[in-house]
Amino acid sequence: MLAVLVGAYVLAFIDRQILGILVQPLERDLHVSDTEVSLLQGLSFAGFLALSGLPIGRLVDTRRRVTVAAAGIAAWSLATAASAFAQSYNTLLVCRSLVAVGEATLTPAAHSMIADSFPRRKLGLALGIFGIGSYIGSGAALLIGPVVMALQQKGPILLPLIGPIRPWQSVFLVIGLPGLVLAIWTATLREPTRELSHAAQMTLTEAWRYFSSDGRSILLLNVSAAFTAMAVYAMGAWIPAFLIRSFGWTALEAGAVYGTIVIACGIAGTIAGGAAGDFAVSRGLAAGRPMIMALASMCAAPCAFAAALAPNGYLSTAMLVPTALLGSMSLGILPSAQQAVVPGHIRGITASLGVLMVNLIGLGCGPTVIALITDFVLHDPSRVRYSLAAALPVMFAVSAVSGPIVCAAYLRANQKAAE
User: Which of 62-66, 93-97, 114-118, 367-371 comes out lowest in average pLDDT?
Assistant: First the structure.
């Protein structure tokens, strides 16, 4: 089950991040601007992903989770494949919105299924393993760049029954259609036994009552993680451009190097974060998970600053390694920290709330903050390194300084859950 869910997460992030390497052909063929493309990648996508997550979280808590996940995978895969036939910006916007709605099913369903399938002492590691899919997918999207660039030079591609299509259109087909196979495989998984048998009778009023009285720890956890996610998404959006503009790298070099860093550090950091949280809890540190989250973000801040202002590309990428490692470590702990202190009958909606905040604040704002500083404060695209140096440490620092407040609320929630 865990392997299938990781595979689905990889596909989700490839589908989500692929637009970053298709900007030029999209702008040329659909006659759109940078701002319109940024809406496809950021705020519009994040908005549909986040807001649709709440009703989907309710479905996860009251219906068969395997079915919900399989339907979501099929929906976003079909929407990705349909993007290949978009002849206008509006059509592509609708397709990308449907991709976001489909992807909104996976995280709450997977978190709930994993939490009911693994003992609590191994929950951090299990959810950490699931989390590596996001980094493998994000890095793979960057590594696909050389293939896309090569296709662009060959002109239209002739497909049976379809006819000639542009290279960027073929990319959507290649990454979308395999998801249908994975959706069928997901549908065959065994539904885990829920921790609480009365889950289906849980009402929205009861869920709201719980979060109103005992949800402060979850809210603070999500806010702290959202600022780390803001930095991580900002890096994903602008580090390749930074390497190109500051050090004269080619797009292929920047994508290959940073894509490799994202995959390697994402896997290591996410698994290490989950395992470290489990270890801390096993040693009696009830607030060990949020404490490690805050420490990781605190250490990432100076690394990000050094990476942005490094005198050459080699030193910069060397500093990006600990930055990416610590950022993924912090975010890798979030799912187990959430699931460990909430009742089993609201795990889906708990995960959906995390998705909402992390994506609205992180994905929706992170890349845009860097662009606003570059365009309206520095007035020079070549100075994007200074935007990164100014913003990334602050984003990580806000996450870190909220640590003591998060830990205090988390301790109270943990004690109540134990009762």
Answer: 367-371
What's the number of CA atoms in the CB half-sphere (13 Å) around residue 186?
A: 29
- Please tell me the predicted confidence (pLDDT) of residue 48: 87
Phi first, then psi, for residue 359 (nearest 5°) are -80, -40
| Strand-pair partners of 165 | 157
What's the CA gap between 263 and 284, in Å, rounded?
32
Q: pLDDT digit string (tens) for 315-349?
A: 999 999 999 999 999 998 988 888 887 777 787 78
Distance between CA 49 and CA 356 in Å, rounded? 7
φ/ψ of 312, rounded to 5, equals -145, 165
* Residue 213 confidence (pLDDT): 66
Per the listing, tokens 């089950």 go with: 1
- Which residues lie closer than 8 Å to 40 by C-beta, 6 or more apart? 19, 92, 93, 96
d(CA 329, CA 295): 10
Residue-wise over 65-76: b if at least 16 C-beta within 10 A, else e?
bbbbbbbbbbbb
Q: Based on the number of CB atoms within 10 Å of its own CB, is 309 exposed (0-12), middle (13-18) or buried (19 or more)?
A: middle
State how far Cα 335 lies from the chain centre: 12
Strand-pair partners of 163: 159
Contact between residue 24 and residue 145 where contact means Cβ atoms under 8 Å apart: no
Q: Show Cβ contacts of residue 349 under 8 Å, excluding neighbours closer than 6 positions.
A: 54, 57, 58, 60, 61, 108, 207
| CB atoms closer than 10 angstroms to residue 251 | 17
Per-position DSSP letters for 301-327, written without gaps between them:
HHHHHHHHH-SSHHHHHHHHHHHHHHH
- Start-to-end CA distance of the chain, whole Å, equals 31
- Bigger pLDDT: 237 or 290? 290
Which residues, in sequence order, are CB contacts of 364 under 8 Å at separation 6+?
42, 43, 46, 47, 50
Question: CA distances (Å), 81 to each of 15, 176, 261, in order?
Answer: 10, 5, 28
Contact criterion met (CB below 8 Å) for 347 and 112: yes
Burial (Cβ within 10 Å: 0-12, 13-18, ≥19) of residue 141: buried
